Amino acid sequence: MLIKASSLIGKQIRSTQDASFLGKVADLIIDPANGKLMALKLQSKIFKPKIICTIDIQGYTPLFLIAKDDSVIVSVDEVVRVKDVLSQKIMIIGNKVKTETGKKLGICEDILIDTTTSMVVKFYVKTSGIMGPLQPDRIIPSSSVVRIDREAIVVKENGVKEKKVAVAGVAEPAE
């Protein structure tokens, strides 16, 4: 199943045992080295951030996510790789997108995730700057990403596709 990151934010996580509320997704933790969704950060106002690793998500429904029970919700400090990724402070959504030669393409506004592999498969890029409204938005496949760092998501020159815009102004995926 393919799902946009924006549709995961705010989604509830429920227990398979008794359908009890386990938490609400606040953010996604993606490894910038390989584009894998590692964990979901849960909303918390008082306590240290808690996460649920994607391996512990048993299902995705239109209304909520399904996990075994609250035993799969852990502190960020308990998963070393997640802690390391968070310490890098590299954001995906909201990060600049540019080509290897430095051509600015825009800002990553969303990503598409394959829930079976937990991998990012596409990046949705909103054109920014003075020419923004005149330039088409883009959909970039993950295979075109060279690297992700604090400064930008860097993509191959030939890996950029533009969204086709329908007459009514609704974006359609590029072929």
CATH topology of the largest domain: SH3 type barrels
What's the assembly state of these chains? single chain
CATH-defined superfamily of the largest domain: PRC-barrel domain
Number of helices: 2
What's the alpha carbon Rg, rounded to whole Å? 17 Å
- Portion of residues within helices: under 10%
Query: Which CATH class of the largest domain applies here?
Result: Mainly Beta
> How does the helix and strand content classify structurally?
mainly beta
Count of separate structural domains? 2
The span between the termini is 19 Å
CATH architecture classification of the largest domain: Roll
- Which spans of ≥5 residues are poorly predicted at pLDDT below 50? 164-172
Strand content bin:
over 45%
Q: Based on CA inertia axes, which overall geometry fits?
A: elongated
Strand element count? 17
Q: Residue-averaged pLDDT, rounded?
A: 87
Largest sheet properties: 8 strands, mixed
Q: What's the order of the H and E elements?
A: EHEEEEEEEHEEEEEEEEE
